[in-house]
């Protein structure tokens, strides 16, 4: 354990060449308690990090190393910004050295290994560690995260949907029809990762707008599993993701029908009370229309609650930066909790405008 002003947290990053990796580096390079000690990449072994990411010149003086060269066992915590399957292949050896793990992929998000194997097309190699891992959505699992050894960092879409719906179904509440919830979600192109792919080429993604994963998306079972835990029973969810022609940002529009016995509920007050003490969740004034640019490069998530014509339909608008609160910022938020730091340490960045 550490605290503000105490010894720094020795940090390793596995697979730091993608967008979540560079976001981790950006955030941790400004974190007062972070000591970046190792970052791995087989392909870029020996390359200075600042050569790949010039925004980090003068901030990060590490070079990429192969996993064999990097002394990850000496770290206090290791972040995995890697493809699915990598973290679980190294988790056991790191845990034996008392290293904490925060995985930004899906290895420790789904507790049901059969569901994981169906969606990610690989066997889960450490189900015992999975069973002890904690789903790292701070606003829902704060106490468990603080004492966890392994964190499954939530997906970007699930973060918006779960925080947008939690006040309506948490703690035994029965305010909406949980058998039919619609999540209509949009993400910037960086959500697809930093890789060569035709669908994310400028000529393909620019000046275009499309749905994808309509027949099924990997984040659907993750959202459903967590909603079931919140609601204490099955939840019917229709989830449709879309790709929008912007680099970063996420906007989720959630539709839920109010139950007859809950029509007198003040939903604006309900959301304001639920998130009153949450540093990174901003419930906007009634009638607000949040924009993705209002959270760009910040760890903030903004929510607006609408009830058109005072009827029985709720429309909940949720925005976040998919690379920060939707990925790397949330991972740092988890780390802060795990090491006894104030949750906002190193994360109090104002969003970038324009």
TrEMBL record:
Domain of life: Bacteria
GO MF term list: N-acetyl-gamma-glutamyl-phosphate reductase activity; NAD binding; NADP+ binding
Name under which the protein is recorded: N-acetyl-gamma-glutamyl-phosphate reductase
One GO biological process term: L-arginine biosynthetic process
Protein function: Catalyzes the NADPH-dependent reduction of N-acetyl-5-glutamyl phosphate to yield N-acetyl-L-glutamate 5-semialdehyde.
Name of the encoding gene: argC
Subcellular location, record wording: Cytoplasm
SMART domains named in the record: Semialdhyde_dh
């Amino acid at each position: 354990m550490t605290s503000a002003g105490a010894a720094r947290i020795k940090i390793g990053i596995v697979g730091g060449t993608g967008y979540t990796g560079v976001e981790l580096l950006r955030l941790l390079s400004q974190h007062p308690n972070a000591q970046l000690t190792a970052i791995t990449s087989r392909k870029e072994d020996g390359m200075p990090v600042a050569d790949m990411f010039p925004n980090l010149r003068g901030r990060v003086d590490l070079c990429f190393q192969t996993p064999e060269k990097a002394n990850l066992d000496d770290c206090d915590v290791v972040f995995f910004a890697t493809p699915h399957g990598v973290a679980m292949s190294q988790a056991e050896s790191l845990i034996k050295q008392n290293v904490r793990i925060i995985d930004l992929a899906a290895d420790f998000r789904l507790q049901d290994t059969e569901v994981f194997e169906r969606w990610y097309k690989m066997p889960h190699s450490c189900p015992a560690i999975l069973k002890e891992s904690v789903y790292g959505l701070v606003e829902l699992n704060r106490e468990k995260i603080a004492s966890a050894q392994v964190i499954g960092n939530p997906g970007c879409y699930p973060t918006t949907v779960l925080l947008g719906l939690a006040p309506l179904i948490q703690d035994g509440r029965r305010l909406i029809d949980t058998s039919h919830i619609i999540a209509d979600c949009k993400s910037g192109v960086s959500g697809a990762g930093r890789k060569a792919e035709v669908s994310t080429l400028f000529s393909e993604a620019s000046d275009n707008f499309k749905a994808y994963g309509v027949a099924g998306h990997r984040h659907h079972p993750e959202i459903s599993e967590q909603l079931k835990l919140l609601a204490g029973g099955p939840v019917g969810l229709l989830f449709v993701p879309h790709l929008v022609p912007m680099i970063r940002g996420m906007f989720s529009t959630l539709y839920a029908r109010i139950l007859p016995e809950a029509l007198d509920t003040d939903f604006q007050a309900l959301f304001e009370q639920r998130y009153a003490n949450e540093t990174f969740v901003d419930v906007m004034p009634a009638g607000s229309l949040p924009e993705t640019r209002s959270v760009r490069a910040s760890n903030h998530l903004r929510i607006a609650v609408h009830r058109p014509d005072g009827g029985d339909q709720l429309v909940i608008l949720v925005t976040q930066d998919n690379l920060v609160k939707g990925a790397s910022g949330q991972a740092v938020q988890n780390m802060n909790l795990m090491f006894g730091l104030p949750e906002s340490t190193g994360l109090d960045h104002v969003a970038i405008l324009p």
